[in-house]
Design goal:
The protein is an all-alpha fold and 100 residues long. It has three helices and no strands. The longest helix has 45 residues, at 55-99.
Length: 100
């Protein structure tokens, strides 16, 4: 088995229990901003605060949501990459056992 094929098998095996992120950083950021906006609208309405008169708060909440979306994607990518390493090592040991 070539190294490229072994790496592909290890990545596919790791994707079963830690899937890689599907979208780009922008998609994750926009989804996080939409979720925060959907949660903030009823909360702000309950408090009776007009967010348009306080644009600094609105900008800060939006930037925090965008950043958390990007951080979530980066975290998912790192978890997938760290799951691939043991799979690749296990397949390497298995190949060495078959070769001897």
């Amino acid at each position: 088995m070539t190294d490229k094929l072994r790496r592909a098998h290890a990545t596919a095996a790791a994707a079963r229990y830690v899937p890689p992120p599907d979208g780009s950083h922008l998609v994750y950021a926009l989804v996080a901003a939409a979720v925060v906006a959907a949660a903030a609208i009823p909360f702000v309405g309950l408090l009776g605060v007009d967010m348009l008169t306080h644009p600094t708060s609105l900008v800060a909440i939006t930037l925090a949501a965008l950043g958390s979306g990007v951080a979530g994607r980066v975290r998912q990518r790192r978890r997938h990459a760290s799951a691939c390493a043991p799979e690749l090592a296990w397949r390497g040991r298995r190949m060495q056992g078959e070769a001897t």
